[in-house]
Amino acid sequence: MEDEDPTAVEDDAPARPAGPEKDDRRAPERTCVATREVKAVGELIRFVRAPDGTVVPDLKRELPGRGVWVTASREAVRLAVKKKAFSRGFKEPATVDPAIDEQVAGLIGRSALGLLGFANKAGLVITGFAKVEAALSKENVVALIEASEASEDGVRKLGQVLRRLGMSSDTPVVRLFQGPQLDLALGRSNVVHAALLAGPVSAAFLARCDAYARYLGMNDGLGPA
């Protein structure tokens, strides 16, 4: 339970006009309640207070009510909990799951895997080492996907193929998910290596993976081969 601090002052907070509260979801920038930095909404995560007082992540920024914004990183969410910033932001007591940072991580990760599943249904995912190796020279591959536990030998060999084709610096490699997670998303077994072909859903998946890696603070989760 995050109790409201009656002595806390919401610094740098502008006075709110009387009358109905402005829809904060339409603002181009908001202030992170943890760091007090002003950032574009795309760099923040919105949270709302449910009727029972529970703090709920609103990743799609669709839920009604007053929003509290936190920089989109696990470190910042943890800081918001530590500083009891949610109650101050909502101006009333709020109940926060101590593991809300992990809850957010799970939501972002599942969202990314869901997009991968859509890409697969659109025929934009090729799996299997040999098929991926062949696709690199024949298809419009925009990224490689490797299970986080993939062997160093397999990763090295595909990296060599990319370098031989002059693609290594331009082709991102997603290493954010374990094999069983990829199996479930793609409806296949033993997925270790996959190639992602160009398409709108593929672009959305990569954008979500980038957000996921930044949230986790994983510099090597989405990078070059």
Automatic annotation (TrEMBL):
Residues 30-104 form the YlxR domain. Residues 1-30 are annotated as: Disordered. Residues 19-29 have a biased composition (Basic and acidic residues). Residues 1-12 have a biased composition (Acidic residues). Pfam families: YlxR. It comes from the Bacteria. PANTHER family: BLL0784 PROTEIN, YLXR DOMAIN-CONTAINING PROTEIN. This is RNA-binding protein. It comes from Chenggangzhangella methanolivorans.
